[in-house]
Each structure stands twice: as C-alpha cells, then as structure tokens.
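Listing S7. Sequence submitted for prediction.
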Amino acid sequence: MKSKILTVIICLIVYTMSSASGKAANNVNISYKVSFPEAQAHYTEVEMNITGLDQKFIDLKMPVWTPGSYLVREFSKNVESFTAEASGQRINSEKIRKNTWRVNTEGKSAITVKYKVYAFELSVRTSYIDAAHAFLSSTSIFLYPDGLLHHPSTIHLVPYKGWTKVSTSLEPVNGDPFTLHAPDYDILFDSPIEVGNQDVIEFDVDGVHYQVAMSGGGNYDRERLKADLTKIIRQEVAIYGENPNKRYVFIVHNTLRGGGGLEHLSSCVLGASRDNYATERGYQGFLELVAHEHFHLWNVKRLRPIALGPFDYDNENYTTDLWIAEGFTAYYQDIIVRRTEIYPVTTYLEALAGDINYVANTPGARVQSVAESSFDAWVKFYRPNENTNNITVSYYNKGSLLALIFELEIINDSKGKYSLDDVMRYMYETYYKGQKRGYTDAEFKAGVEKFAGKSLDDLYAKYVNGIEDIDYEKYLNFAGYHLNDEFAGNNYPSLGITSVNNNGKIIVTSVARNSAAWIDGLNVNDEITAIDSAKVSDLSAVINAKKPGDKIIISILRDGLPIDLPVTLLKKSQVKYKIETLQQPTDQQLLVRKKWLSLQ
C-alpha cells in the first residue's frame, strides 16, 4: 500500500514538473544572429538570444556529430570566446562538459549568449568559411538549449561584404532570404546553409522546386544538368510513388579535387572537382553522386533503421543496418543512372564488376561481417589506418552487392513480377508513413522475404551476419551473365604490400593479410633499400621479374636500423572479374535481365 502511494506521489511530482517545464518552454523564444566580420580568417560570430526564461540555469549544448556521418567529431573544439549577458551585463556561465555550457539565469527572463566558431575544414560534413563564401554545417555552428530540441528558432544572417545569396532548405521569414525559420532543432541540424555568391540553377520537377547552388565555379553545362537531374529525380520518385518535399536544394562545392556527399531531409551537400564535368566519366560520376544523395531523401532520412532517429546528439547512435541505409543507396545510385539511359549497360556492368573486385580483394571481408561493419562505423570506418583493409569491409560496397543479390533473387523467383523497388516502397509505406517509425533488422528482412517469397535465413547467415564470399556467379546467372576472372590461371608473383616513393626512398604503407610480406615480417614504415643486395628504384619491376616460390632477401631500414629479411614470394591472390553474357541465355534469364536493367 505504501509503495503504491509513493508511486502516485512520484508520478504527480513528475507530471507537475513536466507541466511547468512545458509551460515555460511555450513562452521561450530563441533567435540567432550569425555574422562574418572576420570571414577572411575563417570565423563566424554567433549571438544567441533567449527570452521567456523562468529557471535557475540553462544548459546550452553543441552536437558532437552530424547525422549521416557516423563519427564523433567534437564540434565544440572550434568554439571560443563564450560569454553570457542579461540586460547588457555579464552573467555567470561555466563549461560543465566538453560540449555543454551552463548559464546562470536565476531572476533573468532574457539572456544573450555570444561565441565564435572557427571553420576551416571544407568537407560535406564540416563548416568552412573564407572571404569567398560560408558553408554552415548546422551541427557545428548552433548551440541548443538542453531539453528544447523540439523548439523553433529564427536565424538571421549578416553576410560578409559582397555576399548576396543564401542557399538552404530552411524557409525564409517574410520573404527575407537572410532570415530563416527552423521549426525545431532536428530540422535546423538537418539543414546546411550556404552563403556567398554561388551560381543558383533552378528548375521544377512535377511540382517540386529544385535548386542547385554551385560554389567554386566549374565547367558544367547548366541546361544539361537540369535535364539529367530531372531524369534521375523522376526515376527515384517512381520507386516510392511520391516526392515528400515541395522544395529541395543541392549545395555543390566545386574544388580542385572535390568529392563526397551528405544527405539531409530536404537538401544535400556534394563535393565535386570543378573541371571534371567536361569529361564523360567525370560527369557520370557526378550524376551518380547526385543519384546517391537524392535517393537518401527516402532511404535513411525517412525510411530508416530504428536507431537513427530521434537522434542523440551527445553520443553515438548505433545500428547494424548501415549496409541497408548506405549500401542499398550505393546500389541504386548506379542502377538509377542506368535506368535514365545516361550511360549504357556496359558502363553499368563495369561499375558493378568494380564493386565485386573491391570486396573480393579486401582481406577484411573475410574478417568482419557487413552487420559488424555497420555497427563499428563509429570507431573504424571514419578512422582508417594502415591495417584497415585487413580487418574491415565497407558497408557501402558490400551492402550494394547484397542489394544486387536481393534484387536478382526477387526478380527471378517472382518471374519478373517484383523487384527490390517493391521492397523499398513497401517498407516506406509501412514504417515511415504507416507506423511513423524506423524498422528493426528483423522487419527489414521480413520485407525482403515478402517479395522473395521464401526465407532468407541462409543468405543472412552467410552474407549479412557471416563472412562467406558471395556466390556472385549464382545470382548473375539468373540474368544470363557470368564472371570471368582475368587473373585466373596466372602465375604472377606477389609481395603483398603497397608503398610510396618518398624522394627516392621506397616506404611500405600497407601489408596485406596472409601475403608474403605479412608472413615473413615486412612492416609498414619500413624503408626498402635493396633486394638481393641490389639497390631498388622500381620495386614492381623487380618483383615482376620473379616467380612464386622464389626466395629473396629484402634489405630494409626500420627505425633507422638496417635489417635483412628473407621473404618467399607467393602467387598473386587477387581477382579481376569481368561480367560477360552467356552465349545462349534462356527466356527466363532474358526476362530477369530485362527487368533488372530496364531494357526495352
């Protein structure tokens, strides 16, 4: 009886506190002024104004990571000069955690917080500011009040001299592009902002307005881009049956050697090489990147693993399903471009063979499962070292190949009635739209089985949670193709290392697991000075003149000390697959091929 009374009292206290907190939160207004008086030095100055407070203190926090990029990046490391004021007077504040500042607000209904952020890391996931433009990756710029993630805010941008444009998916306030409204912090943190003089390309696709904000110049063709992006967008919308946005923004940073992309709810950020648009392969590569990040509009931003939202911005958010979120998207980026007929079947099959070769030649694929790779992204994928290739497999590449075998399995077993598109649409309708939540591992597996018409326990055990080599021949055969290994039957010798020539010094940069170098003790950072007492200038030429089984003496410098290592060369174990058509494919195989590759 006492325990029941105590429980009721606790519940009443919690309810009262929650109600009071809710009333206080309803009266709170939050706004930011973001200015760039020292853009040339890579700084922004942020002024955060909070009114309607009724509490002893408020904790202001900065996310430690950005959704879509699974690494704790500690954005607070770039924050400096934090101060807090009320009525023009300094008030007490202290940093209580690596990413949290506590401000004393007792007796204060309104406060102003000021701080600076240093931004000089140009990537799709980090902020960058110089005299030419500012790219604000919101998680690394905006502090948020603890407990108020669902609260709206207003952002006013004060541009650096000469800047005239803003590109973001956030909506302007009263038509002012330099004043933006964020409905809550999840949306603010999912809405990067580009400020400067970017070239803005605008077009509509079936009632949805698109903008491409090109920063950094480039030899792109505006009209060709609009036409080809329209084709890609329509193909992707057709899979899910709807475009969930009314407006979408591509922010593109064109640099000397750009690359990468990051998805957001109603926008994405792309890195590109400004001079690559003029080459056919360079242009196709950009379109593949566009197709990848735009496909995320559904897969991961809405149809998502259950762990990826609502987000915990203080800690890692673990899932074993990045092979679906990223790997399936990597599969679709190529097949979507193929469906548009922007490039032919041969180009698609070459790209597919490249993925197969990459995974087959990665020693880590026989050490780490793709589910483990997803889970360990936080500590391994974004922190590669000289041994990464030996212990990990990419959830992008292997996930893409799993999408391929699911695709071919479904098309073959349903005799062309279904494809992986049906799985993605069903999962989107069922979990994002219907249940308004993410899916579990088991639910996604059940979704695939629904259209495969059978249990996939064995496939999951071998290829998702296990480390067996995928039987590509079996699945490609469904479509009348087979793999030809151009290295089969070779007798090439192999040392099993990669190296760089550093001012005439041959330095080992990686050693492949179970290679000759691995077995006989050659190490990363060893300097190879001679082989069989002869000075080496071209290592590949020396090794290629040998044969498997040959014993050589490799002279090295290790930490400045000379060592002679006896090494027995092994046969090259790498594969080089090419996808070729069967001479006489059956009607069933042709049916699968037609459905898979969108052939007429």
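Caption to Listing S7: primary sequence and predicted structure tokens for the chain studied. The chain is about 30% helix and 25% strand. The chain has four domains: 24-197, 199-297, 306-488+588-600, 493-571.
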